[in-house]
Amino acid sequence: MYDLIIIGGGPAGIFAAISAKEKKTDIKILVLEKSQKLLHKVLISGGGRCNVTNGLLNPMDLDPKDLARNYPRGQKELLGPFHQFGPKETIGWFEKNSVKLKKEEDGRIFPQSNSSATIVDSLLLRAKLLNIEILKNQDIEKVYKENESFKVSTKDKTFIAKKLAITTGSSTKGFEIAKDLGHTIKKPIPSLFGFNISKFTLKDLSGIALLVELKIEGSKFSQKGDMLITHFGFSGPAILTLSSFAARYLFDKSYKAELIVNWLFDLSEDEIFKKLIDLKNTKSQKTLYSENLFHLPKNLWFAFLDFFDETFTKQLKDLPKKDLLILSKKLSSDSYTINGKTTNKKEFVTCGGITLKEVNFKTMESKICENLFFAGEILDIDGVTGGFNFQNAWTTAYILGQSI
Ligand SMILES: Cc1cc2nc3c(=O)[nH]c(=O)nc-3n(C[C@H](O)[C@H](O)[C@H](O)COP(=O)(O)OP(=O)(O)OC[C@H]3O[C@@H](n4cnc5c(N)ncnc54)[C@H](O)[C@@H]3O)c2cc1C
Question: What is the model's pTM?
Answer without folding.
Answer: 0.94
